[in-house]
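Reply to dn_fold:

You asked what the input looked like. This is it:
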Amino acid sequence: MTLPIGVGSAEVVLPCDDLQATAEFFTGELGFRLECIMPADDPRVAIVSRDGMRVCLDRTSKSPPGVLRLRVDERFESMIAPNGTVVERAPVVSEYELPELAPELVVVEQHGVDAWIDGRAGMRYRDLIPGRQGGRYIASHIAIPEGGPVPDYVHFHAVVFQLIYCYRGRVRVVYEGQGEPFWLEPGDCVLQPPRIRHRVLECSDGLEVVEMGCPAEHPTFVEHELELPTELERPAREFYGQRFVHHEANGALWEACVDRPGFEQRDLGVRAATRGVVVARVIRASGSAEADLQPHAFDTLFGFVLSGTVQLLVDGAASRSLGAGAAWTIPAGVPYGLGSASDDFECLLVEPRQFNASSTDA
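and this is what came back:
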């Protein structure tokens, strides 16, 4: 059976008083193709198409003229079609824009009830870098209070980097080329390379993770074709110059911090996997930890208190006593120190290097 022309497709209806002028604008100025016009003796409807989109120009329609956004490479100023439709150019959403860094000292105290907002796939978010350093970085405290299946789907992100640290509870995830699904336990961490396909499957009650990425606003794409887990395992594969990391806290090595006397660290394996783009570690007090104020040479330094308490001292600012759930972001070149750490103090530190603002490695 042969279907009539146009069956099985969808179209957007736009009104127009002058059908001929509007159709000529769409085909001449915007590069649409004329598909159909009817009736021949007194045309009321013209159907035009471009890049899989069909538009029905209808003289009898009473709907608003609307806004049409074209995701095209060529640049043009906004236009108004003869029927009143506003035509705008939308950027091609395939990469990210890396905003200019706006360094800012930020301290976020332990969270309150009003700090959380609802996000994607039933997850609740708490912003740990208000202001986002000019849009360069985002860090979020993410929670799913009730355990069970997570309404997620296979997806990927256009990013410079993205790191997930399991803070409380446990979560089952699956990644492209990394074998069967696995559970992230408290203290575990994954580095999600740019565009790796992945999915959150289920979690325990009281799941909390800390996520940091660059840039702050980046597109998340739904993957409609690839199914996870993939048959082929490629744990050493590079995604845009980065390798996937699954750091397991159980049995991980602790070593002295060279840059912070009195502390020891658990390296999360991110430096090697990103070729030095990001350093990520967990630190804890070891013996007598004195607040030795020193600057850092990274793009920024993000810290999140996992347990215990500590005094954060920053040159030129009042000292702050911080407990679990508190976070800070310190610009490059600003001397800071950690002192009076409790015996159970642990802290996640993420230190991205200084990116070139023209970087497009995603």
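The chain is about 5% helix and 40% strand.
Hope that clears it up.
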